[in-house]
């Protein structure tokens, strides 16, 4: 029971970034998404990855690695879109 | 060591929503933030809260409750700002 809830919760949190990336790719704008939010999420997931490594919890490590990749993608997209924006 | 990393990681993930809320309040726009992202985050944190409750892990439950409140705030702000936007 607990592991099902944990799996579903992890799937939700990991997959939540997909619609954000899709929206960003469609609108070519992530102006309203805070860069600090993304950087702090990256920092947090890096710490969780290290925690998963120390605990040898590789599922946890994998889930956070996927979030890290998504957050890095969003950060790169945001920076790229901001640069292209006319002043 | 592990608990310090877990605490720091939790603090990062929880606090990451603050700059996003501040940005939203300043710009009065969350158009680029995906509503599906917010809803799935809310669903995920609700599941984590339930998991924390089952495990009697009240720190974990509290951290996810704060994320839940932040995500609900962002969702309400987004809906309000979208309604006010001229067509």
Task: Walk me through the structure.
The structure is a homodimer of 87-residue chains. Chain A is mainly α. The first copy, chain A, has a single domain (2-84), classed as Up-down Bundle (Monooxygenase), CATH 1.20.1280.290. Chain A has four helices and no strands. In chain A, helix 1 packs parallel to helix 4 and helix 2 (17-27) packs parallel to helix 4. The longest helix of chain A has 27 residues, at 58-84. Chain A is elongated, with a radius of gyration of 15 Å. The N and C termini of chain A lie far apart (54 Å). The relative contact order of chain A is 0.17.
Count of folded domains of chain A: 1
CATH class of chain A: Mainly Alpha
Return the CATH topology of chain A: Monooxygenase
In terms of quaternary structure, the protein is homodimer
Largest sheet of chain A: none
Question: Which class best fits the helix and strand makeup of chain A?
Answer: mainly alpha
Unreliable sequence segments of chain A: none
- Compressed to H and E, one letter per element, the order of chain A equals HHHH
């Amino acid at each position: 029971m607990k592991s099902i809830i944990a799996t579903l919760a992890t799937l939700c949190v990991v997959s939540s970034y997909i619609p954000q990336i899709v929206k960003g790719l469609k609108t070519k704008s992530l102006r309203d998404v805070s860069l600090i939010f993304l950087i702090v999420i990256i920092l947090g997931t890096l710490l969780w990855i290290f925690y998963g490594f120390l605990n040898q919890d590789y599922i946890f490590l994998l889930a956070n690695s996927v979030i890290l990749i998504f957050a890095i993608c969003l950060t790169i997209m945001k920076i790229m879109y901001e640069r292209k924006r006319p002043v």
